[in-house]
Design goal:
The protein is α/β, with parallel strands linked by helices and 501 residues long. It folds into three domains: 153 residues, 3-Layer(aba) Sandwich (Rossmann fold); 145 residues, P-loop containing nucleotide triphosphate hydrolases (Rossmann fold), CATH 3.40.50; 160 residues, Up-down Bundle (Methane Monooxygenase Hydroxylase, Chain G, domain 1), CATH 1.20.58.1080. It contains 16 helices and 20 strands. The chain has an eight-stranded mixed beta sheet, with helices on both faces. The chain has a six-stranded parallel beta sheet with strand order 9-16-13-10-12-11, with helices on both faces. The longest helix has 23 residues. The radius of gyration is 23 Å and the shape is globular. The termini are far apart. One of its GO terms (molecular function) is RNA helicase activity. It catalyses: ATP + H2O = ADP + phosphate + H(+). It is an enzyme of class 3 (hydrolase). Homodimer; in free form. Component of the mitochondrial degradosome (mtEXO) complex which is a heteropentamer containing 2 copies of SUPV3L1 and 3 copies of PNPT1. Pfam families: DEXQc_Suv3 (PF22527), Helicase_C (PF00271), SUV3_C (PF12513), Suv3_C_1 (PF18147).
Length: 501
């Protein structure tokens, strides 16, 4: 009964409003209007970029709003509203109104548990859920036992989305406002180069491993009508609610590698990405969508005309308190053993699944070798670390080792004075993105173990320098450099990180 993990929410009879409809239908906009009028509230988004956007919107509307993500806290005087990433949702403090965006992500195999926690645990008088209609039956089932009142409001798309009958075929047919979608960093830069080779357009780029701050600036450049960057090359990272002024979505391929195998895009993925074309109230109110190659058009058209499959289960993950109880019963401090045994023996109702925690287990192998308390191990294992990235994994090991030895982790033990240059190749770009992730990890840990990780300001400065250098690299890829002031940045190079291969 995971709903009973949250007594503050269970003491309330919450009024829940489920706003469902396609992209660009105004569902999130309407929910945010309710949030603005509330005396106190919280927005929970799937991306840091969306949390930033909402905080900016609220403050602009004279509703003081704090921004809280895993890597930054920006407090505004007098604020009784918060804009947070869903993992940072406060399930202890009561508020009048809360919004959970992209609620269909309760079914995500890796992050679903964070959305489930927010759904079951936020103790607000009103809770507004925004997402795909495919999640309605599951939400109704999950909330049947919570004594909440649920109302469903359906939305239609505010502007037309037109599937084209002909493919793009040639990049010479690219137009202002186009967004070309592909699914790997290497392919993104390859397509950017091909489009700009025609010497008609400059391309902004957006993809998942690009630092959030850089993604924000790339978004701003593309949306700015006075900017020279009038075409976007992006991954499916654009499908998560970003406000982009896109005229036409062009799928360069209808297949993606999902970490295990290369597969065709799902109906939900196609609709989520294609729906970003055409934005109500923008320069391009009518959206169009097509493919680069004619062979992909049948899948595009069939996906757009189909309903998304119903989401059947929501993610769950044991809280720290639950794992502590389990460790006491089995007299072990080995986090990997606790996690593996718990997951093996956990019994679930049909509406839930245990979130994929393979990445946590990779961290557990590292921290279990160190003399750390169980709570410290839990923090390291739940940190935003990509253990498949050699540089990031090495950074995590150093942080955990230094913390275990001294209880203090100074950033300069990894970074020494030097000069970081603009990347000269895609390999160097990837390494710089990895260094940014290490700095991001340090900041994340500093918010949870402030005394042990005291160099947050330095890490934040270094992150910004990485952002600037990455943008300089992106700028140099273009066939012309837009007018902007020249910046010479002195930074610190890395020490102790594994050499490039």
């Amino acid at each position: 009964m995971p709903h009973m993990w949250y007594p503050n929410a269970r003491r309330k009879k919450r009024n829940i409003f489920l706003h469902v409809g396609p992209t660009n239908s105004g569902k999130t906009h309407n929910a945010l209007k309710q949030l603005e009028t509330a005396s106190s509230g919280m927005y929970c988004g799937p991306l840091r970029l969306l949390a930033w956007e909402v905080a900016k919107r609220m403050n602009k509307a004279n509703v003081p709003c704090d921004l809280i993500t895993g890597q930054e806290i920006n407090e505004v005087e007098g604020a009784k509203h918060k804009s947070v990433t869903v993992e940072m949702a406060d399930v202890t403090a009561e508020c009048e109104c809360a919004v959970i965006d992209e609620i269909q992500m309760v079914g995500c195999k890796t992050r679903g548990h964070s959305f489930t926690r927010a759904l079951l645990g936020i103790p607000s008088d009103e809770l507004h859920l925004c997402g795909d209609p495919a999640v309605i039956p599951l939400i109704m089932d999950l909330l049947e036992v919570t004594n909440d009142v649920v109302k469903v409001q359906y939305y239609e798309r505010l502007s037309p989305l037109i599937p084209l009958e002909v493919p793009l075929e040639s990049f010479s047919n690219i137009q202002t406002g186009d967004c070309v979608v592909t699914f790997s960093r290497q392919e993104i830069y390859k397509l950017k180069k091909r489009i700009e080779h025609e010497r008609k357009h400059l391309c902004s780029v957006i993809y998942g491993s690009l630092p959030p701050e850089t993604r924000t600036r790339q978004t701003i450049m593309f949306n700015d009508e006075s900017s020279a960057f009038d075409v976007l090359v992006a991954s499916d990272a654009i499908g998560m609610g970003l406000n982009l002024n896109i005229s036409r979505i062009i799928f360069s391929t209808m297949k993606k590698f999902d970490g295990i195998s290369t597969r065709e895009l799902t109906i939900s993925e196609v609709k989520q990405i294609a729906g970003r074309a055409g934005r109500y109230g923008s320069k391009f109110p009518v959206g169009e969508v097509t493919c680069l190659d004619a062979v992909d058009l049948p899948l595009l058209h069939s996906s757009l005309s189909s309903h998304s499959p119903v989401i059947e289960r929501a993610g769950l993950f044991p809280t720290f308190d639950v794992l502590v109880l389990y460790s006491r019963l089995h007299s072990t401090m080995n986090f990997l053993d606790i996690l593996e045994e718990f997951l093996d023996k956990a019994k679930l109702s049909p509406n839930y699944f245990i979130s994929d925690c393979a990445y946590m287990m990779k961290v557990a192998v590292v921290v279990d070798e160190l003399p750390l308390r169980l709570h410290d191990k839990y923090l390291f294992c739940t940190s935003p670390v990509d253990m498949d990235d050699e540089i990031v994994a090495h950074g995590l090991r150093q942080f955990a080792t230094n913390y275990a030895k001294k209880g203090l982790v100074r950033l300069r033990e990894i970074f020494t004075p030097g000069t970081v240059k603009v990347p000269g190749s895609h390999k160097e770009l990837k390494d710089l993105e990895s260094v940014h992730k290490v700095l991001d990890l340090y900041v994340w840990l500093s918010f949870r173990m402030e005394m042990a990780f005291p160099d947050r300001a330095l890490a934040t400065t270094q992150k910004e320098i990485c952002n600037v250098l990455i943008e300089e690299f992106l700028e140099r890829l273009g066939w012309q450099r837009p007018r902007r002031r020249t910046r010479v940045i002195t930074s610190e190079s890395t020490k102790g990180l594994p050499p490039s291969k």
